[in-house]
Amino acid sequence: MNQPIPLLLLPGLMNDARVWQPVIAAMNEHQCQVADCSGHASVAALAATALASAPPGPFALAAFSLGGYVAFEILRRAPERVAALALIATSARPDLPESIIGRERMIAALVNARSGAAGFDALAAAFLPRLVHASRVNDAALGDLLLSMARSVGPDGFVRQQRAAIGRPDSRPLLKDIRCKTLVLCGREDQVTPLDCSEEMASGIREAEMLVLERCGHMAPLEQPDAVIRAMSRWIDAV
């Protein structure tokens, strides 16, 4: 009997391994490993670190949000290692000029004003309405988890992540070269990476399957973990 393929998981902005906890609990036979996506200020360095710590040989790669930018860099560096790809609530596009301005303002607020823990908590809390479906905005448990993960990344990690997002390359030209089994998944009401970002990736990747989750915002792995687990189980079983 073949051994289950290892699964490398990439978190998103202001996330730690807990964003993948429901998936890990359900798919632990796949030797799940979560890479750090907050330790460097470029997707190139984040990808190099993830590859250095990845299981030996081929692995399945699942990426959420900011982790998707890192996943594309892994594909540039070592496409032969990626046996299957899951892109969840992410985009292949480079950062827009208006997004860069917004990120730079947040960086300035943290670095120049040195607003401290309270200021960072306020910044992280302000993200919540954009991160989840309207029906989950007042979900205290989910909000507490998101804030706790943001605190674990911290202001310095947040600045590095924003720099990495600003400097990411345009990955759309790479889409046609992706040959592995690919799942593209997003929430219908995702305000951070809207539906058309996922549609663009799915249409550009030859072996892509797309799934849209209804009544779901950006945080699909935590908002609708059962649906994400079912989709990922079908995806990885096809490898």
Describe the structure.
The two termini are 14 Å apart. Strands 2-1-3-4-5-6 form a six-stranded parallel sheet, sandwiched between helices. The chain contains nine helices and six strands, in the order E-H-E-H-E-H-E-H-H-H-E-H-E-H-H. The protein is 48% helix and 14% strand. Helix 1 (21-26) links the parallel strand 1 (7-10) and strand 2 (32-34). It is globular, with a radius of gyration of 17 Å.
Notable features of this structure?
single chain, 239 residues, alpha/beta, six-stranded parallel β-sheet, 9 helices, 48% helix, 14% strand
Give the topology.
Blueprint: E1 7-10, H1 21-26, E2 32-34, H2 43-53, E3 59-64, H3 66-77, E4 82-88, H4 97-111, H5 116-131, H6 140-167, E5 181-187, H7 195-204, E6 208-213, H8 220-223, H9 225-237
Parallel strand pairs: 1-2, 1-3, 3-4, 4-5, 5-6
Helix pairs in contact: 2-3, 4-6, 5-6
Quick one: how many beta strands?
6
Distance between the first and last residues' Cα: 14 Å
Mean pLDDT: 95
The class by helix and strand makeup works out as alpha/beta
Strand order of the largest sheet: 2-1-3-4-5-6
Produce a short descriptive summary.
The protein contains nine helices and six strands, in the order E-H-E-H-E-H-E-H-H-H-E-H-E-H-H.
